[in-house]
Amino acid sequence: MKKTLFFILALMSFVSCQAQQEAVKAKVYGRYVPERKDDFAWENEYAAFRMYGPALKSENPSNGVDLWLKASPELVVDSFYYREHVLGLPYHINYGKGLDCYKVGHTCGAGGLVVLTANGEGANGEGYQTWIGGPYDRWTIVEQTPDKFVFRLEYDSLLVAGHVLQETITITVQAGSPMNVAEVVLTEKGEEVTGYGLPDLLVGGGIYLHETVDEVEYIGRDAIQYTEDALSDKTAAQMNYDYNGSTSQGRITLFVRTPGATKVGLMDGNAISVRPYILGDTLTYYFGATWSEWKE
Fold it and tell me: Is the pTM of this model over 0.85?
């Protein structure tokens, strides 16, 4: 009798434990996406993002960040890819869950790394040159829980002022926060094109400004954000018009902050927040986005 009771209690405990585990619903998610040319994608309740991998190299992508808009806290990365690549339903159209309507090209996109060097014409305005890298070479998932996702991307060939740098960026996304945390380390590979020494660097986060920018706002001394029409990309605008007869998909607001930034403003079509950087140091910056059509 005692043995039977023991097994009954053990079974009840197991069932209760299983129920508790099922009740822990993931609020963040991310993965390597080989079926879409080596994308690395991630999300939390507020937005989804992706960065570009080696299989896309022939299309001249950047080390910038792409943004997917989400209509609710529901995780959508896998369903968006499935809809696009299996069902043939483009994720550039909003079917009610959100959409990919943000154009990156070879830019920093929605919070990618920006490197500035003085070009010899003075340290103001046009006196700087902006450097943007290409796709990542390697990825690593560092931590994955229902509330936190951490991954690392490594870039072997970031060209800056005739010097080849290596970039390592570790990105953390947590439940409950619209901000991604980026930790960047740059080192020199010793390869030179110009034969001149590497100039002083200003490094931090940036946001590419599309033509539909509505408002630029400075927040404190080290942060900048701007708002634009969600359908700034003409292709996405046309696809949504063909599907539902409207090009109205609300507004998106993008944000970037580099603590200790000494230069915050507009540069080469980007909103930037950067500070002096020494090779080998770890630089931390924050980036994120919100959508006016998101509903909790």
Answer: yes
